Structures are given as structure tokens and as C-alpha cells.
Amino acid sequence: MKTIKYSQIALLAATSFALPAMAVTSEQSAFFDNLAAHCGKAFEGTVTAGNSADSAFSGKKLIMHVRECSDTVLKVPFHVGDDHSRTWVITKTQYGLHLAHDHRHKDGCEDKVTMYGGMTADMGSATEQSFPVDAYSINNFRENGLDVSVTNVWHMYVKPQEFTYRLTRENRDFRVDFDLTKPVDLPPVPWGHK
Fold first, then answer.
1. What average pLDDT does the segment 14-41 reach?
2. According to the 3-state scheme, what is the secondary structure of 150-164?
3. Where does the signal peptide begin and end (predicted)?
4. Per the domain annotation, does 9 fall within a domain?
5. Integer Cα distance of 97 and 48 in angstroms
6. Residue 86 is part of a domain; what is its CATH number?
7. Phi, psi at 164, each rounded to 5°
8. DSSP conformation letters of 112-161
9. pTM of this prediction exceeds 0.70
10. Which residues contact 75 (CB under 8 A, 6 or more apart)?
11. Torsion of CA 33, 37, 39, 42, to 10 degrees
12. How many domains does the chain have?
């Protein structure tokens, strides 16, 4: 009977519980890199599609700031006038790219409706990715009376001269386009971040 050494058991245990490798496609990686290329810069945007549900954005200065960048996570605060509550979090995962909306209050604590979003459902392209709503978000929306949001799909487009954030669902198409050719002054630190 073959004797198994302790070091072999430790090695087997370590490999059994190793985290899976990242499994983003080359298109998703290129998209991630295209957005990361703007790290440290902020850009002003304009609402180019929307309806009465989007009135909170009317007449406000809209700034996106590619603020925190690592090999696997991008944090992009979206400032709406003096409201610094929103940060988009794009993460490379074993299943593709994930988009989360980190919503905070002025004191830094999390909103009841936060970290909602979704995972890419297909490879997308180097310039376009879509994020259909995930189960966590559907539950969060329902718990907070936002049933209208359970079919949300978020889209992001990174082109040489423009970044677009878009939300679509039945009877709603909200879109903000940001001019990447004209960096602007950096906005304040988003609420709840250092």
C-alpha cells in the first residue's frame, strides 16, 4: 500500500480549493482595457435619451471619473450635480464581466438598493458590453418596490471619442454620452469611498 505524505495531502487540498481562473473573453478583456486606459481622468456627459423617470438628471452636471483601476476591478463614480452617491463597479470574474451599481448615502453607508447589476451574457465586443439584470438584483428590486426594474439591461460602450452608459427595459431607454476627448477637473471623492 502506497503511503501518502503530509505534503502531498496539503498540495491536493490547496489545488482542490484554488480559485478558478478568470474566464473573460478576449473581447471582454479588450473592453475592460479600453475603459481602464482612461484611468485617473474625468469626463462630462449629456443625457441623449430618457423620459420623465430620468428628471433627476435634468439640468445637472454629469461627470464620470475612471477613479480606481486594478487588473480585475474598475470603479467609475458617476456624479450627478452635487449627488456623489453612484459608482459603477466593473469586475472580471470566472463567468465574464460583472457590472454593479454601488449606491451610498452622504454619510457613506450603503443604500437599501445597492450593488445591483448583472453579468455579461455573451462575449460582446471590445467597444460594447451588455449586462442583463441578475437574480440578486431582481430580489433586491422586488424587496424595495422596484418591480419595474426586474428586466433591466445595462449597456456600456467605449469608443475612441465617447463613453456611453445606457439602461434599457420595456418603456425605458436612458442614455448618457460622455465626451472622452475633453477631460474635465476631477470631481469630489464619491460618498463612502476614500
1. 80
2. CCCEEEEEEECCEEE
3. 1-23
4. no
5. 25
6. 2.40.128.20
7. -125, 135
8. SS-SEEEE-SS---SSEEEEEBPHHHHHHHHHTT-GGGTT-EEEEEEETT
9. yes
10. 67, 68, 69, 87, 88, 89, 102, 193
11. -120
12. 1
